[in-house]
Specification:
Number of helices: 5
Structural class: alpha+beta
CATH architecture of one domain: 3-Layer(aba) Sandwich
Order of helices and strands: EEHHHEEEHEHEE
CATH superfamily of one domain: Gcn5-related N-acetyltransferase (GNAT)
Strand order of the largest sheet: 1-2-3-4-5
Distance between the termini: 17 Å
Radius of gyration: 15 Å
Helix content: 25-40%
Oligomer: single chain
Number of strands: 8
CATH class of one domain: Alpha Beta
Length: 167
């Protein structure tokens, strides 16, 4: 998952340290804190350290969705191999000003196409806290189906999954 992807409205490419201002903003949104969790990113240095930690971990793949027109970063699509899940977990988060406009769907579909083309995964999962109804709606629209409810670090998570061939 390293080559850039172009869609009708987006350019999707790998997260870099240069994205620290965007990461600072995204990780401090109400949606990120409520549905993903507090990451204690309070300074530019915190954001850079967070990105460097991601880049150093081969189980974490973060791609930034940018507007084609301005190259402004508006969201993330992630592919994470979590210890407690059998397959990689695809995720997404977008700045509030860009939610409800189809950007997340457009970005995730493009990343899924790239994953299918590279044949690197046979199955994908997605997780969401039960209260995150907007994300769950998109997860289902993408073709992932509810599999189970788990508790991880005291948090209830719904797990959705599908084979790559079905996506």
């Amino acid at each position: 998952m390293s080559s850039a992807i172009n869609t009708a409205r987006l350019l999707i490419d790998a997260l870099t340290v240069n994205d620290h201002v965007f990461i600072f903003e995204l990780l401090n949104t109400e949606g990120w804190i409520n549905f993903i969790g507090q990451r204690n990113i309070h300074t530019k240095e915190d954001a850079i350290a967070y990105i460097n930690k991601i880049l150093a971990n081969r189980n974490l793949h973060y791609q930034v969705a940018r507007l084609q027109t301005s190259n402004s970063p508006i969201g993330l699509v992630t592919l994470i191999k979590r210890d407690y899940l059998a397959h990689h977990d695809i995720g997404f988060a977008f700045l509030p000003a860009f939610t409800g406009k189809g950007y997340a769907h457009e970005a995730v579909v493009a990343v899924l196409k790239q994953i299918k083309a590279t044949a690197t995964h046979s199955h994908l999962l997605a997780t969401a806290v039960p209260q995150n109804t907007a994300s769950i709606k998109l997860i289902k629209k993408l073709g992932l189906q509810f599999r189970e409810t788990i508790t991880e670090q005291g948090e209830l998570l719904h797990v959705y999954g599908a084979s790559i061939a079905d996506l």
